[in-house]
Amino acid sequence: SKERKSGDDVNVTKRRWMLVAALAAAAPLGAAVIDPFESLSGWSTFADTGSTVTLSAVTGVAGNALQMNYDMTAGSFVGITRTYSSRNYAATGANALRFAYRASGPTNTAQIEFVDADSTTTVLADGLVYKFPVTPDNTWRELTVPLTDFITFANGNSSFDLSQTAKFSFGVTKDNGSAGTGTVYFDAFHLIRATQPVSL
Question: Considering the chain, what is the average pLDDT of its residues?
Fold first, then answer.
């Protein structure tokens, strides 16, 4: 996996409205737990050349959390990913992603990405990406991010399909950040139906 770059503003706006329409058409049935991180089974790591990342399960805000220790003294990104045959997250009627994180070390950028099932090769499938600067004060924070705040990267059929989600990834990039070593914890990723979702 490689770090994503921003696309054309007009196309981004169009794809956001397409996503809003798709979510509005889905029945609001509740929420979907992406992973509670009670174990690390099924997850694999990736890293840019020169970077390293190691994972462990630790106590989080709800049961266990995932601890990601990274070294980006060289290289620009590290992360963790999980591949599914296909998951229908649209059926929940979710319109936001809720999760918790805490961080220490350099101020870097966290990146979260869904990939649809257009292709078994990630670079030929559409991605839904959200980035935010971490606050490295070692304090847990819970974020609720509207799915319309995610950016679509059109590498497949140019229409991200939440009903056929094939991959979920997250990690840290050096966007507007600093080289060095750090730790980021993630916990409780849920897709939810929020009446008033709040961005970071």
Answer: 82
First to last CA, the chain: 25
How far is Cα 16 from Cα 148, in angstroms, rounded to an integer? 5
Tokens of 160: 């991200």
- Structure-token pair, residue 159: 């229409």
Nearest CA to 173 among 4, 45, 40? 4
Helix (H, G, I), strand (E, B) or coil at 144: strand
pLDDT band at 177 (very low <50, low <70, confident <90, very high): confident
Q: Is 94 exposed, middle or buried (0-12, 13-18, 19+ CB in 10 A)?
A: buried
**Cα separation, 6 vs 41, whole angstroms:** 32
Give the position of tokens 């649809």.
116
Cβ atoms of 134 and 26 within 8 Å: the answer is no
H or E element that contains 183: strand 181-192
Strand partners, 82: 168
Q: Per-residue pLDDT tens for 62-102?
A: 789 999 999 999 999 999 999 887 888 888 889 999 999 99
For residues 91 and 161, give the distance between their C-alpha atoms in angstroms, rounded to a whole number: 11
